[in-house]
Task: inverse folding
């Protein structure tokens, strides 16, 4: 069996609940951690620091971004740690890049990290334009793409972002990580793109992202 060259554990929707640190296995053993958003609940003083310290105590290689429940101070904190992914990109391995866009489109709840569909589209396009050349792409968004298994709330209504879906349809990233809709944990596809929503971290959901022989792969996990 081929051994993965690098692995990341990806999760999101932490909402200040640190239970995930003890229930998600191998956090300390993988190459790094990716957080898709919603580290806090409206980012009260000291909240993002507590979440950061909980993850960092297990694994110091962290990439993370704000969700709709996070205020801008979360992005500023992550930037100060060199770990921000919102509207930024990194090279994960030769020819393999990751880019992130956090926040969400408007919700009925008026949460602090909401943006319009137009802003979402612009953030995605601007971040992608700065990627340069790549062979494979890992897209990390907080909001789920519209009209998939991953954006349906309890009554079956699809509430995800059309801008996120449009971007995926156009650029076909190999792997997409999202969150935001807690009850829509699962996996779906748009064209050739495989998309994962692990649900809430405190519920034991995560995605194991691997690079095997220079190729991106991912597996949805649940404790």
Result:
């Amino acid at each position: 069996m081929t051994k993965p060259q690098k692995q990341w554990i990806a999760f999101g929707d932490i909402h200040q609940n640190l239970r995930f640190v003890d229930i998600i296995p191998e956090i300390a053993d993988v190459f790094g951690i990716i957080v898709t958003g919603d580290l806090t609940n409206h980012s009260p003083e000291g909240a993002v620091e507590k979440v950061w310290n909980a993850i960092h105590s297990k694994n110091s290689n962290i990439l993370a971004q704000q969700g709709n429940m996070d205020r801008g101070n979360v992005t500023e904190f992550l930037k100060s740690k060199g770990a921000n992914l919102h509207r930024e990109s990194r090279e994960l391995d030769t020819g393999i890049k990751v880019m992130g866009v956090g926040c969400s489109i408007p919700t009925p709840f008026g949460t602090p990290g909401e943006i319009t569909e137009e802003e979402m589209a612009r953030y995605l396009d601007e971040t992608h334009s700065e990627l340069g050349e790549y062979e494979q792409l890992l897209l990390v968004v907080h909001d789920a793409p519209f009209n998939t298994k991953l954006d349906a709330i309890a009554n079956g209504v699809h509430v995800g972002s059309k801008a996120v879906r449009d971007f995926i349809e156009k650029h076909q990233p190999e792997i997409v990580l999202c969150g935001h809709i807690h009850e829509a944990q699962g996996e779906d596809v748009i064209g050739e793109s495989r998309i994962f929503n692990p649900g809430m971290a405190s519920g034991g959901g995560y995605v194991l992202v691997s690079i095997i022989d220079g190729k991106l792969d991912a597996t949805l996990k649940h404790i």
The mean pLDDT is 96. The helical segments are 20-23, 47-56, 72-80, 117-129, 162-171. The longest helix spans residues 117-129.
